[in-house]
Design brief:
Strand content: under 5%
Structural class: mainly alpha
Radius of gyration: 28 Å
Number of helices: 4
Helix content: over 70%
Length: 90
């Protein structure tokens, strides 16, 4: 931030209108009984969700691949059923 922008920000925060509005907002926040848990997710939470989605898609594609290319022989279960059971117990 440039020096001039810093001066603009400081002048804004020192204005009587801003101070009055800030005090009113602080009083309003003080009356809230519960903390606000809504809003955007943190970076860590969003990243975790994206990784979990990626993993679930990979598992789904793997199951489809194994289902398409494996066949049960000699009374044994097809390979994808073993894999699906492993994923469900994981």
């Amino acid at each position: 931030m440039t020096k001039e922008n810093w001066h603009k920000a400081i002048r804004h925060f020192l204005m009587p209108e801003h101070i009055k509005r800030s005090l009113a907002n602080a009083a309003c926040r003080g009356k809230q009984r519960y903390a606000n848990r809504g809003g955007s997710s943190s970076y860590a939470s969003t990243s975790f969700k994206e990784v979990m989605l990626y993993i679930s898609v990979c598992i789904y594609i793997s199951i489809l691949y194994l289902k398409a290319y494996s066949k049960g022989r000699n009374g044994h279960l097809p390979l994808y059923k073993h894999f699906k059971h492993f994923v469900q117990t994981f």
